[in-house]
Amino acid sequence: MTNIVGVAYFNIIQGSSNGLELLNFFDDALLIDQAVIGAALEPGDVVVMDNYGFHHARHIEPLLGNMFNMS
Fold first, then answer.
1. Pairing mode, strands 33-34 and 38-39
2. Does the reported pTM lie above 0.70?
3. Which residues pair with 38 in a beta bridge?
4. Cα separations (Å) of 62 from 23, 53, 67, 68?
5. What would the DSSP string read from start to end of 2-62?
6. Is the pLDDT of residue 8 over 70?
7. Structural domain boundaries of the chain?
8. What integer is the mean pLDDT of 14-39?
9. Which helix (DSSP H) or strand (DSSP E) does residue 71 occupy?
């Protein structure tokens, strides 16, 4: 994730990604509170994802909605 200052949060995983990795990424990002620039992910931020299938998986999409209080 990037912000006006630059890269706010990133994670590199070994191997292919899946829904659990996506949930773990956002869970970790929501816990980050950087002293200088604030949280890596704050209310009002926009998250852009490609249309890869596991973003819409029936067991992942509701969890993401709950995570971002969008359900």
1. antiparallel
2. no
3. 34
4. 11, 14, 9, 10
5. B-SSSB------SS---HHHHHHHHHHHHH-EETTTEESS-TT--------GGGG-TTTHH
6. yes
7. 19-67
8. 77
9. none
